[in-house]
């Protein structure tokens, strides 16, 4: 009875609150960082929201979750009512009745500040299969022959005899797939499901097919591609030797709820029919070949005659773990038209897209039956206007000439105008050379291209008075997105590998600019799948086996710790740290066992330096410290006191060992004093506090003496940051804004629209023109110029640290970042000897502004801002502030 009364009182109070104060809508309601997701299969999904602009602080919240939308709208939830919780959290894990499969849960949130209540509209999330035992279908394929090249069609005719209320398709695939119902492709995703270690984790997707099915005759069609599951191309990475390799297969349950409430499953089994398709070859690594003469019109529609098709074969599941794919999907995000077409002959044309992208081209052409058209994709062209792949095909090891690199082959059916695009492949390119075995007439409208990538929401924006800065930022973003395909990769052409070092160097660039948590959480699950029992990780993740014996030193595979920690800082969400804690611990324990002195040379070192060669022993030992320090901080956060004590001591031991081994305390020089050897200890907190000014001065003097930047991959993370964090922001900006070799601007000056793999631009091999490895500069813009930092003590930008640098040579700058609490803006403009600085602190958060230098500060909102303790930081509550800053 008390529980009933309590619930009743909550409802009454809820409605009284609605009447008592003004009501505004909450926004950005998400479940597991997705809007109205289908197929959720976690037991305690995370629910999040944002307050309206201008709300100072959230004092309390109430979450209401139930299976009836009308009841939830009235404030009644039959699954969970959190009650009024006095907290400012905007991310809360579901804690109600046990989540059930195949169920739509409606939810809303109410928030109180000092005077008002703010409510959201009712939204929902929907659960999926949730438990392996709930699958009804069998895994099916067409053969066990991994060498068979044509992709397989599958179809099933079904008769729907009653009116449908709701229908879902749950499809798990080893390989890639396209799903069709009654001739129409379902959804707008590309390259589903994402790459995993297939023998340890298989992903399924959920599709709402309510509007696609109809009463009466229907047909379901599935086209399977190889993806990374059945890799038939050969390269140095041994993709074709993966232990899971097999002919693509799938399992699908179609769950129909009729208007009368009856539930029916239509599932995969031996009654499904299969045939080979016109996709006569497909490789995620190289390209796709399509023979239009082998098309079977209507293969995925009702009434198609499939008597010549054979029955599908039942087979085993690829793994024992089948989980829902819950992340922002790969899509055709942007369509591009050529900026130039050059007709080389009646059977050869060159199309220039004007910029480097990852994705596919699409050709529309008319010609004789059997005409073979080749679409060669490249980043460069020669003086003869022919594509030049020498910089990207270096690691390809073809066994014959049947699988040319980045070259689609389209054989015309000759029926009429025909259109081709690859379904199960993507490439990195700016140019497409089209050649044909018979003359064809093409125009500049014959070809277009699609920029494809994981469709993560934009979270950041940069603008400035420096056109070069703006171009570098855009190029960095283009490289980041070109290398986001369900996991972070190094390049979209010659490798497509999940290189760990590239990813942790670029993690802040990714998180300042994009809302990428769903991709990183998936990728860290891949880490768990490939980690050896002793804690060792491979250099590329996922992997079919390559990377355990080379490239996987501590300076690369520190992703296991660095990425979860950055997710925590940017989102204020500790779930990934909790999930990965044992993996980080196992990794650090391996390092401690193998390198008890606290010093290690296990790693690749400062990869692709310009001139200098920095100590690999120093940089690897620093990453040993970073991982151990993160483990200690995670232990404290997760209330693991014994671990905190143990790993705090170990971290201090490693730091002490590094300084004893590599630091000359009299001169303030580490090792030989290269830019990386000085900036890495500064940035990562190795340098003793008393020696920081000396080491920083040595770094600045070294840069001045060298006359340019001289770092490799690891140093590219630290050089600009170490300078700007230690009083040399002007010098850092000089390096960042150079347009002479070596620099980011040098690439842009020479026509780059993405970042390169090498500081040199004249390489003839092994120099991808679309790499993210040197992409830290974009994050540096937010940190050094915008001054926007998360506060580890109040993560997720609950409290914002602001440390802008008004550098010489730049007149205006603005950085904005959409945090879990709303948009942060840090903007400044130089005018008549003054700096006009504007800050926006989002609702329910606060900030502390630190202005380095000898400044006189005024604020138009003076009554709200205490400037008396300026050197200790100016504390800012929610709102927009306008400062006038002068040199004293």
From TrEMBL:
Record-annotated Alpha-L-rhamnosidase C-terminal domain positions: 788-858
UniProt entry keywords in alphabetical sequence: Hydrolase
Enzyme class: hydrolase
Keyword Disulfide bond on entry: no
EC number, as in UniProt: 3.2.1.40
Transmembrane spans: none
Catalytic activity from the UniProt record: Hydrolysis of terminal non-reducing alpha-L-rhamnose residues in alpha-L-rhamnosides
Keyword Iron-sulfur found: no
The Alpha-L-rhamnosidase six-hairpin glycosidase domain, residue ranges: 459-784
InterPro entries to which the protein is assigned, alphabetical: 6-hairpin_glycosidase_sf, 6hp_glycosidase-like_sf, Alpha_rhamnosid, Bac_rhamnosid6H, Bac_rhamnosid_C, Bac_rhamnosid_N, Ig-like_fold, Rhamnosid_concanavalin
Record's protein name: alpha-L-rhamnosidase
Swiss-Prot/TrEMBL GO biological process terms: carbohydrate metabolic process
Domain Bacterial alpha-L-rhamnosidase N-terminal: 163-333
Domain Alpha-L-rhamnosidase concanavalin-like: 343-453
């Amino acid at each position: 009875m008390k529980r009933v009364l309590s619930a009743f009182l909550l409802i009454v109070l809820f409605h009284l609150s609605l009447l008592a104060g003004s009501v505004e809508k909450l926004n950005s309601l998400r479940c597991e960082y997705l809007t109205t997701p289908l197929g959720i299969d976690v037991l305690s999904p995370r629910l999040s929201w944002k307050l309206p602009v201008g709300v100072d602080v959230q004092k309390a919240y109430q979450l209401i979750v139930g299976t009836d939308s009308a009841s939830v709208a009235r404030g009644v939830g039959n699954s969970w009512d959190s009650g009024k919780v006095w907290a400012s959290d905007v991310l809360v894990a579901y804690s109600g009745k046990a989540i059930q499969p195949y169920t739509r849960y409606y939810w809303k949130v109410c928030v109180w500040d000092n005077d008002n209540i703010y409510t959201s509209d009712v939204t929902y999330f929907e659960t999926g299969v949730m438990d392996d035992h709930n699958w009804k279908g069998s895994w099916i394929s067409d053969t066990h022959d991994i060498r068979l090249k044509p992709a397989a069609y599958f179809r099933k005719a079904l008769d729907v005899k009653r009116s449908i209320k709701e229908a879902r398709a749950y499809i798990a695939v080893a390989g890639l797939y396209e799903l069709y119902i009654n001739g129409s492709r379902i959804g707008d995703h590309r390259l589903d499901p994402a790459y995993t270690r297939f023998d340890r984790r298989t992903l399924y997707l959920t599709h709402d097919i309510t509007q696609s099915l109809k009463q009466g005759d229907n047909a379901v069609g599935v086209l399977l591609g190889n993806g990374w599951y059945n890799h038939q191309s050969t390269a140095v990475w041994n993709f074709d030797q993966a232990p899971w390799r097999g002919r693509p297969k799938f399992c699908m349950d179609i769950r129909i709820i009729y208007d009368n409430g009856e539930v029916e499953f239509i599932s995969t089994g031996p009654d499904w029919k299969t045939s080979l398709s016109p996709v006569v070859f497909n490789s995620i690594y190289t390209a796709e070949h399509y023979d239009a003469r082998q098309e079977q019109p209507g293969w995925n529609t009702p009434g198609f005659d499939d008597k010549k098709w054979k029955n599908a074969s039942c087979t085993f599941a690829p793994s024992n773990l089948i989980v829902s794919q819950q992340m922002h999907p790969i899509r055709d995000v942007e369509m591009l038209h050529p900026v130039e077409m050059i007709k080389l002959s009646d059977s050869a044309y060159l199309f220039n897209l004007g910029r480097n992208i990852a994705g596919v081209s699409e050709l529309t052409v008319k010609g004789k039956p059997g005409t073979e058209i080749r679409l060669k994709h490249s980043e460069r062209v020669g003086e003869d206007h022919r594509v030049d792949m020498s910089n990207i095909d270096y690691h390809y090891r073809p066994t014959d000439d049947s699988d040319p690199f980045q070259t689609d082959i389209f054989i015309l059916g000759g029926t009429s105008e025909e259109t081709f695009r690859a379904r199960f492949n993507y490439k990195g390119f700016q140019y497409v050379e089209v050649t044909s075995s018979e003359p064809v007439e093409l125009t500049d409208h014959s070809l277009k291209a699609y920029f494809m990538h994981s469709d993560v929401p934009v979270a950041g924006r940069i603008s400035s008075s420096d056109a070069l800065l703006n171009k570098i930022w855009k190029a960095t973003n283009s490289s980041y997105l070109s290398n986001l395909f369900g996991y972070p990769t190094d390049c979209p052409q010659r490798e497509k590998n999940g290189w760990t070092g590239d990813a942790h160097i670029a993690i802040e660039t990714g998180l300042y600019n994009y809302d990428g948590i769903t991709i990183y959480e998936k990728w860290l699950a891949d880490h768990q799948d490939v980690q050896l029992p002793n804690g060792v990780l491979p250099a590329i993740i996922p992997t079919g086996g390559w990377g355990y014996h080379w490239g996987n030193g501590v300076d690369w595979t520190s992703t296991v710790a660095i990425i979860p920690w950055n997710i925590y800082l940017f989102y204020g969400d500790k779930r990934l740290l909790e999930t990965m804690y044992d993996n980080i611990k196992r990794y650090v324990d391996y390092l401690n066992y193998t390198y008890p002195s606290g010093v290690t040379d296990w790693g690749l070192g400062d990869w692709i330096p310009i001139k200098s060669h920095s100590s690999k022993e120093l940089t690897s030992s620093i990453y040993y410290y970073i991982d151990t320090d993160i483990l200690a901080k995670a232990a404290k956060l997760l209330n693991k006191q014994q671990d905190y004590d143990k790993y705090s001591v170990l971290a201090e031991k490693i730091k002490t060992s590094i300084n004893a081994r590599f630091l000359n305390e009299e001169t303030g020089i580490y090792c030989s004093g290269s830019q990386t050897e000085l900036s890495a200890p500064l940035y990562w907190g190795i340098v003793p506090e008393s020696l920081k000014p000396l080491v920083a001065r040595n770094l600045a003097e070294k840069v001045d003496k060298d006359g340019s930047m001289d770092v490799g991959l690891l140093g590219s993370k630290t050089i600009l940051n170490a300078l700007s964090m230690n009083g040399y922001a002007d010098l850092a900006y000089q390096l960042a804004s150079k347009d002479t070799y070596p620099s980011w601007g040098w690439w842009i000056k020479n026509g780059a629209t993405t970042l390169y793999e090498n500081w040199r631009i004249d390489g003839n091999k092994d120099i991808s023109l679309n790499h993210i490895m040197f992409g830290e500069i974009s994050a540096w813009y937010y940190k050094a110029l915008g001054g926007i930092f998360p506060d580890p003590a109040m993560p997720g930008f609950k409290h914002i640290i602001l440390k802008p640098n008004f550098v010489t040579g730049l007149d205006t700058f603005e950085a904005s970042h959409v945090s879990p609490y709303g948009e942060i803006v840090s903007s400044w403009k130089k005018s008549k000897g003054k700096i006009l600085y504007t800050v926006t602190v989002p609702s329910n958060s606060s900030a502390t502004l630190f202005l380095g230098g000898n400044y006189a500060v005024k604020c138009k909102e003076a009554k709200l801002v205490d400037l008396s303790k300026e050197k200790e930081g100016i504390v800012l509550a929610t709102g927009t502030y306008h400062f006038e800053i002068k040199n004293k």
